[in-house]
Design brief:
2 copies of one chain form a homodimer.
Chain A: H1 13-23, E1 32-34, H2 36-42, E2 45-50, H3 60-68, H4 73-76, E3 80-83, H5 87-98, E4 103-108, H6 113-121, E5 125-129, H7 136-147, E6 150-151, H8 158-177, E7 184-188, H9 193-205, E8 210-216, H10 221-228, H11 252-261, E9 265-268, H12 270-284, H13 294-300, E10 310-315, H14 322-330
Parallel strand pairs in A: 2-10, 3-4, 3-6, 4-5, 7-8, 7-10, 8-9
Antiparallel strand pairs in A: 1-2
Chain lengths: 332, 332
Amino acid sequence: MAAASDSTELPIAADIDAAAKRLAGVAVRTPLLNFPVLDARLGARVFLKAETLQRTGSFKFRGAYNKISSIPTDRKAAGVVAYSSGNHAQGVAHAAQLCDMPAVIVMPSDAPAAKRERTAALGAEIVLYNRDTEDRAAIAQDIAQKRGAVLVPPFDDPLVIAGQGTIGREICEDLTALGLIPDIAVVGASGGGLIAGIALAMKARVPSVAFYSAEPEGFDDTLRSFASGRRERNSRMSGTICDALMTNTPGVITFEINRRLVGAGVAVSDAEVGFAVGYAFRELKLVVEPGGAIGLAALLAGKLEVHGLIVIGVLSGGNVDAGMFDRLIAGG
Amino acid sequence: MAAASDSTELPIAADIDAAAKRLAGVAVRTPLLNFPVLDARLGARVFLKAETLQRTGSFKFRGAYNKISSIPTDRKAAGVVAYSSGNHAQGVAHAAQLCDMPAVIVMPSDAPAAKRERTAALGAEIVLYNRDTEDRAAIAQDIAQKRGAVLVPPFDDPLVIAGQGTIGREICEDLTALGLIPDIAVVGASGGGLIAGIALAMKARVPSVAFYSAEPEGFDDTLRSFASGRRERNSRMSGTICDALMTNTPGVITFEINRRLVGAGVAVSDAEVGFAVGYAFRELKLVVEPGGAIGLAALLAGKLEVHGLIVIGVLSGGNVDAGMFDRLIAGG
């Protein structure tokens, strides 16, 4: 794969190795955590990759940094542009900041002030749009063209996918050090970049590991796409507590990878996700946002047969506001 | 040091090595975490040992397990007894459970139901006492004598201190792997077992590392004892959000170690501790109880000059109920 910014070629394991080199000493090498209390509950050995502890509180920094640090020198001054009100916004803003590049983030005008402030604090310029009347992708494209800035897609990009894949590479390294071979992995899917990258990295080392996507009920476009063989769309764009998992349809590149390497998944209810957030608070002492807890939720809800297996989950983000967190942990 | 259960001999570094062998594969080898956002704030390289991720949610499991697994075979059937309504109770109950030994925990009758249930769920028998009219130490001693059970002290015991010392041993191992030498460590002190064990382990490897105790304002018996050279007492036994740090006076053994190896400390207000709990939620995505956050609070409040240094902190526990946690994170 070339490092060109608009490539739609499929990334391969070597691209993840290259991403790991770029991210070394920059991204946090997050711990792969094991909790005896969770193992006892599930009758399995469960390892959770804590991307909640990554820069900006989610895995998104990895893909953004891999993409942005690959931009050729002569295009650096024009900077980058992205559209997101959530974890991708912060990942892009912080990666650009570390690369000494300007960043524009296109956000809905009704995005919570806290998210705008947080992204602005990372040095990004915020451009607001009207969610009802304007098209954020068109606005971002327009800014990119006018400024010569590089658009950083949230998932459907080989360099972004390869960046997320470094998570799978680290998981394999840590398991190898423990003398363990994973049996099964469950990873949240929205656009599908996280699970695509991790599956690419892990399947290259352990072809036998079985992958499952986890999605909110009603937003299981990836699961339905596996069944139909084509990219299905969700009928709604709101209505789950998993605000990080509301992408409308799988990406072109990500789906091509995921239908080959994953091909199976589960849907999880908001109540099950809420329970997982509370469980992580009470038993694991970790702050996980709803979308970041969906893989754990699938395990706790017994959606997958894991008894006796070595199981991998990813806690993909921890950016939840205090009010929402309080509501979710109060139920436990 | 002998492994006798009532020894008051000072533990040495070799006792910590022996403890590490007993705890290997049983205690969680908790990660030593680094957060770029915290480094940037303090202008230092800060490493936090996350004992929040230990079995039972605090470091107390280490000392309890080291003590209990050292009990001679002929005394195992009679089990153990301890008095505590908090983290030590859970640590002892769980360690006894793993050693297939009965445990009696003496708890105040007004202890929160959640704490009683949690300790009982770990297999312990709960004996309640009236906080106003009865002496818990006497009750525990009485049970120990009648049953032939071994009393597991919360801190003033060589095996308990050596168990906590494994934390310092792991910190040094992880720093060595990173090629780093610590300059300064700040650790919460109540009875003083945690900081004594860690100082013993780390000073044996890096004699130059400077240690500071952190205590709640009004409960700074260790700090005042450093100043006077004798074991001072706190005038109150309630009135801080750090419920885990309300021991009345330093231990005999722990103070003997701490006056030699630590000798300096800081006191931190409840407001500063509350801020640290909220900061850990918002920025570090970790659930830390007030007492477990006191070292971080000392750093965030600027109580120590750390600019340019390699700094060690310990997040010693995460057992905070949802109501208290909500109040603390709402302020941020």
